[in-house]
User: Which sequence fits this backbone?
């Protein structure tokens, strides 16, 4: 009977607060998408640059810096950014952007380094210039690696975005924090379950793109070999 009562109570809660829940989900997606987009725009070109420039000290410096960002606790990083950027979405997006750099950078770098040099040499012999080799050979072959990094990072960022509520950025974390503050389990359950669902859906989506890119790349390579 208590379970049944909670079920009906929860349905009533969803009917009453669905607009607030949708707003929180929208804010969560905006923060996640913005931080991931910034991470991709910075880390992918940087990974390509490092794969083409074998300067050891530069590799060490960049990977050390991005690794340091990963080791800073989320709450500590947010606290550091508040005096610099205030509260709200801006510091939350910037903090999550810093967390997104290392996995995307590492996978991009490894993806480009995994391309067979003999294939690049053959393309050079066929008259491909540097841009053509990058766009038509290296990028397609590296794309599954890059997508793998984006996939894992997105799942993590969706989870970490719940902490953005602590600095007034909104999102699903606001439901959780509010639920804890007023001891309302419906808010806590809704915030946590929604974040889990978003992470699960993102993993499915990027996983499908990753598999599709791998199959397409393998078919392209097979056709080139057959020729």
Assistant:
């Amino acid at each position: 009977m208590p379970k049944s009562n909670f079920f009906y109570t929860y349905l009533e809660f969803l009917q009453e607060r669905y607009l607030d829940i949708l707003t929180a989900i929208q804010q969560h997606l905006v923060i996640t998408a913005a931080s991931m987009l910034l991470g991709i725009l910075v880390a992918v070109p940087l990974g390509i640059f490092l794969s083409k420039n074998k300067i050891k000290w530069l590799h060490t410096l960049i990977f050390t810096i991005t690794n340091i960002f990963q080791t800073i606790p989320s709450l500590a990083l947010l606290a550091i950014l508040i005096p610099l950027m205030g509260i709200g979405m801006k510091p939350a997006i910037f903090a999550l952007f810093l967390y997104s750099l290392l996995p995307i950078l590492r996978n991009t770098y490894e993806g480009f380094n995994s391309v067979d040099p003999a294939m690049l040499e053959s393309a050079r012999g066929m008259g491909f210039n540097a841009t053509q080799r990058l766009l038509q050979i290296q990028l397609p072959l590296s794309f599954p690696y890059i997508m793998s990094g984006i996939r894992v990072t997105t799942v993590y960022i969706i989870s970490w975005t719940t902490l953005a509520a602590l600095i007034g950025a909104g999102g699903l974390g606001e439901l959780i924090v509010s639920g804890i503050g007023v001891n309302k389990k419906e808010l806590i359950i809704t915030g946590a379950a929604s974040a889990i669902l978003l992470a699960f859906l993102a993993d499915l989506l990027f996983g499908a793109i990753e598999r599709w890119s791998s199959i397409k790349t393998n078919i392209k390579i097979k056709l080139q070999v057959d020729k």
Notes: The mean pLDDT is 87.
